[in-house]
Structure formats: C-alpha cells, structure tokens
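Technical annex B. To support the medicinal chemistry partners, we prepared a structural model of the target in complex with S-adenosylmethionine, based solely on the information shown next.
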Amino acid sequence: MAPNPRVAKAFRAMREIGIPEEKTKPVLKNLLKIYEKNWELIEVENYRALADAIFDSEEAEASEQKKSHDSAEAEAAEQKKKLEQAEIMKAIEEETQIPEEPERPLKRLRLRHQDGSSCTTSNPNSHGTPLKKPKLEIDDLPIAIPRSQARAMNASGEPVSVSPQPQTRNKGKQPVLADTPPDVVNGAGSDSGLRLRHLKDKGKEPMPPQTRSQGLRSTSDRPSHGVRIKEPKPKQTVLPLIKPKDEPLTDDAPPLPAPLSVTRPEPMTNGDSSAENRSRDSNVLTSSNETSGHELAAVPTESTATIDIASSSKGEIKISLTCNSTQNPNLSATNVDTLLKRMEDRCLRSYKALDSNFSVKELMKNMCDSLVEPEPEPEPKPDSTPPTEELKKVAANTSDDGPLLTTNGSVGNEAEGACENGFQDTEPQSLVGVPNNEVTADDTRSLHDVNDIAKGQESVIISLVNEVNTECPPAFHYIPGNAVFQSAYVNFSLARIGDDNCCSTCFGDCLTSATACACALQSGGEYAYTKEGLVKEELIDECIKMNRDPQKHCLFYCKECPLERSKNEEIIESCKGHSVRSFIKECWLKCGCNKQCGNRVVQRGIQRKLQVFMTPGGKGWGLRTLEDLPKGAFVCEYVGEVLTNAELYERVSKSSNKDEHAYPVLLDADWGAESELKDEEALCLDATYYGNVARFINHRCFDSNLVEIPVEVENPDHHYYHLAFFTTRKVKALEELTWDYGIDFDDEEHPVKAFKCRCGSRFCRNIKRSNRSRKRRFT
Ligand SMILES: C[S@@+](CC[C@H](N)C(=O)[O-])C[C@H]1O[C@@H](n2cnc3c(N)ncnc32)[C@H](O)[C@@H]1O
C-alpha cells in the first residue's frame, strides 16, 4: 500500500527539525487518533502540534526512565518472571493430570514439552524485515500433502523446504530457523500422533478466543493485539425477573411494605401492608372497573404511549401507562380482562417469541420486579444463600392481582417493595422482556423463552435459570449457526469444494474405513474423533497446550496484517504474529459418507444438556452442563455474526455502549500464509446481537474445562471456519463450563478494559497482575 502522502509529509517536516521517523510515527499515530484524523490540526503552523507532542513524549519518556529500575534489575525481574511462568506452567501441567483419568502412556507431545523444546523461532522484534515467501517442508507427511502446504508451495512458486527440528512440536512443517525472517511461515505440522494441520491465530491475545493472551508475559513480547470488547453487563432494568420454573414456595414471609398510593376508583387504605388488604384493594379495582363504564380504559388500535413511574416516601411505586388516543376514531371502552386478552393475542401474533402461556398480568408484575431490583446489584458471597428463599417467601404472601386500570385510561400495576413473585408461583412460563418504554420491532430480540432460550432451534432444549438475583438475560437474537452480517466473504458454493476437499468416494461411516478419507487427510491424516464422537485425547491435549502457552508455538507474520489495517489505515503497524493451530476437517455435503458418519460432529449441533444460569460469583450469566461429560466431548460452537474486522471496528467505535459488546472472536487462520489478505477475508464473529449459548460461557484463566478448536466444514479456505468447544477433562453435571478467552490482563495499550477476573483459578492472571501492583486499574 502506497504511504499516505500526508504521513510522508509529516515525517519530512519532522526530519527537517532533526526528529527521526521512528520517533514521529507513534506520536503521529496517537495524534491522529486524538484529533480523529483531522490533519489540519496536525499540519497547522508547520506541524507544531506534532513537534510539541513529540517533545512532550520525549520528556515523559526521560522522566519515566529516571524512575525505572536500572537495566540489571529489570533483567533480573524479567528472569524471575520467566521462572515464575515456567513454574506456573508446570503447576498447571501437574494440576491438570486428572486422577480419575485412566493411566496412559505419555504422549510424544508431552514428552517434548517436558524437554522444554519449543518451535518458536520467531523474533517479535524483527517485524518489518524484508518478507520472504513461506518455505515449508514436507518430510514425513502422511499419505497426502495437506492443502495448505500445497497452497504454500503454489504461492511461493518454489518447492517447500525442510527445516527439521527434532524434539520440537511441529515436525511436519517446522518453523524456520533463526536465520529465517519472522515473517516467513513458521511451521504448521504436528508431532502428535494425529499430525493435524494447524491454523494460525494470534497467540495469547486479548482478542479471544484464538487470540490468546500472553498470560504472565510482559506486554512487550506479546503477539498481535486483537479486538477485545467487553461483554455487556446484562441489562438490569429493562427485562423482567426470571425464576427457575420449579422453585417451591415457602410460607414464612418477611414483613411487606405499605400498599401503593395510586389513582384508583376508590380510595386506598395506606399503611395497611397485609396481603389480604392488597388483595381486597385489587378486587375493588377490578369490580369497579367492571361496573363504572366511565372508568374503563380507552384502547386505541394505534396510539402513542408513555410510561410513568412514581414512587412515594413510603416505598410505594406506581407505574402508569398513558395512551394518547384522542385522535383515534376507533376509541372504545373495555374492561381489564378484555384488554389483557387482546394484548395477549396481539403479543402472541406479533412477537412469536412468546409461548401460549404468555400473560400480560405476569408481564406487568415482572415490570414491578424490575423496578425494585437492587441497584447496584449486590454481589452475593460465594457461600451466601441465594436470595431465592426470600423471594419465595414474598411470593407466597403476595396476591396474584392483575394490573390496575385507572380512570384516565392508564394501566397501572401494584409494585410492592419486594414484588418478586414474577413467574414463580405460576406454571412454567416463557420469559417476557420489555426492553424500553416504546417497544420497537428490533426489541423483540429481548423476548427470551426461559424454558428454551434457543426457541426450538437446537436439537436439545436449553433452559435459563436465575437463582441468585433478579438480573435478566441480555437482549440478543438466538441463532443456532453463524450468519454473515454484510461484507464478509463466506462462499459455500459446491463449485469451490474440489475433490481434495471432500471424500466423494466414501460410503457409510468414514471412521470404519481402514484408511483415512480425504477429509481426514486434510486434518493431518487421522480422524480427529473417536467412534464415541469425542475428540481424540492427543488432539485435545495438544490444543490445551497450544492455548496455554502459545508463545511456545509457531508464529506467522503477515506482510500487511489485516487486523492492524482495520485498526488504523493511515499508519499500519507491523503484524504481531499469528500462531499455528490444529484444526479438524469434517466431512460434508459433497462427501459420499452418510449423515451419521463419525467425522461429522460439530455440524450436528448441540447434543448435550446445557443450561444458562446466573453465576453466584459475580460473573453474570454462565453456561453449565446438566449431565456428566467425558473428556473431548463437543459442547457447542461459538456462534455469531460473521463480520470483517473493519466492520467490527466500525461497529464498536459507533456503539454508544461499548460495554454492550460480547467478546468478538477473531477467525484468524492462514493469515500469515497469504501475502496479502483482503478486508472481506479477515473475519471475526460477534455474538452481541446474534449468537447462541456460547455467548454465555465465562472466562477462566488457564485451567478452563473447555478448549476451542477450529473446525472446517463447508468452506475450503481458512478464512471462515467454525469455532467449536470441547471438554478438556471430565466435567461433572452442574459444573460451570468455562473457556480461557486468552485475555492479557496486563495489556495496558488495549482500547478496551478487561473485566476484573473472578474465575477463581489458582492460576488467575488477573490476581497475579494485582499482586504485582501494576499500574493499570480494572473496573
Ligand atoms: C462472553 S460474556 C459471558 C457471559 C456473561 N457473563 C453474561 O452475563 O452475559 C463475557 C463477560 O462475562 C463476564 N465474565 C466472563 N468471565 C468472567 C470472569 N472470569 N470474571 C468476571 N467476569 C467475567 C465479563 O463481564 C465479560 O465481559
């Protein structure tokens, strides 16, 4: 890409006053960000602002240096850090040797790692060195050459070369040796029994999940920075309370607050807090509404509506809905029951998300629940009794009264200080969400079905429970599979799938065949799955290791990194590196095998009993299993909108609420192998607005019980693939499912702050950081 003439001019101007380009570059980049690319502000007075900023930064640097430890101390600290890290890795290794697992011989992989060998030969400091085409070696490849290698050969126009490194991880495709520039392909083979092909990702990156963080490494040596965007704290005020459907009620109710002081046909007795009186008041209202025609509500078919909330010093709350229907010729009076029935019919027709048990009364009650939600929500102590019991007591003493209909055509509802009975004392119901005063078509996404958050789109039911607080799930559309947002190039055409991309001559179940099918060859020559449908242990172990310590693995460097380009087109930073990953190739449409073929697992979708639940430890919603899971079991795929990275950046920068964004996932494969990747090929997944259960999986540092593996199903290239979660060990029913997002909690440069980690792992990277009294503060 030709350098921006304005950038070149700025460099020249600074050179003229003795400032070298290396100094100018970062400052200019920063200024462009601050001035929102308003060059005039930078160019004015012969780049005065730029020169000043450079001098300022030099001064700051000098004073920083003064403060800092001398280099010997720093080096010693670095050494110590490395030792610490090695110890931690060792401890994790030991810790994750699960006792209940049957004894098995050590895998070659493990032995090699224990030897301390590594395939990392990349030199992160040498970014920007002249590029060379990848030189790969095909040494002991199984039967066929993996497609990516063939492509590397084609791309380079020269035969692959051999860089054997015994005792390193990627034997088939070794990383280049020390004299090889880091921007050269560093290897992609596996020395595990499976010898699976690898995809590359960004290593321990703040942008999850392929972008693994550096763990305990310093910021300076980490590979590329992705986009990590904080997951929204689920909206608390706009959705009603969700309760586990089967919670029993108890009798001992706490004292109830005074009843409401609202507009009523008959005066209400204040100060009487008994359930009996509340019930009576409500009955009075109902009968009054039925008998006094002039007090009945006018319900226009089209009206504008406003919702008012009033509260009194006694803790009473009134919600009133005022409909402006004066201009409407269809204005007619009706009674509460008719109104409710009409509304229910309307909701069932318009918002198909609701089930037949939907009740407007419940909706109104839940509106009350939302009103009296504690703010800010207290964080339950891990061992504290969930407030459920208390809520049940309240529910038992709260009458099941309907909404109030006021004389001015307003609909009100009683909201006691602890009106938490929501769905609790009724039959199992769907959750109904009311996102705003004015419900728009798009807001229907917040109408979740608590009995099945997937709304029948998965082959299993996925329920949602909150036994901890009154928080409601975030508003999003549940989708069972990825969907392209706009510009992403995801081409599934059959014509693109060549004979080497499918096993068209196979029949029945590929796994029963003595030789590996063409699909398996693409994954390194062996099937990734066992006959039981589990990922083979060797592969799982390899992926776990890769995720825990990506620096030990190979890094690829792009000539012009699309990720850096999407961050800033003016000055494109050098590629921070993409690590090499194992992937699975499943059989698909053009294959001759049948649908039950054992090499089709992820494409069958979720098969395990899962549940979305409110975690007690302050992490918000989480995902858990309701059944015991063996090691290597497929749990779910990370599903979201497929976006280009440029689209993601735009989306995030335009978002008024950056916290609203779920963690986007970088689909970073083969980037380094291609000399230049088009914007529409540099893809990521964003589950903020459209996603599946995976959007609820919380992070756990290092020893998470899930690991992500890229799975190629329909697309023959590696720009788009499925990101599937498999268990890293046996997981017991009701255990929370976690995944290491790869966050680098030390990343002070990242535009988005990391959350305060509450993973509870003894290897928590956030705790480490805090103990070292690092500068950065977390919210
Ligand atoms: C992909 S979402 C997971 C679902 C989320 N808990 C929810 O309620 O929707 C990621 C967000 O969950 C929270 N989270 C995940 N793991 C966490 C952890 N270990 N500690 C604290 N918060 C965590 C953070 O707010 C993060 O931004």
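Notes passed to the chemistry partners:
The chain is about 25% helix and 10% strand.
The two ends are 39 Å apart (CA to CA).
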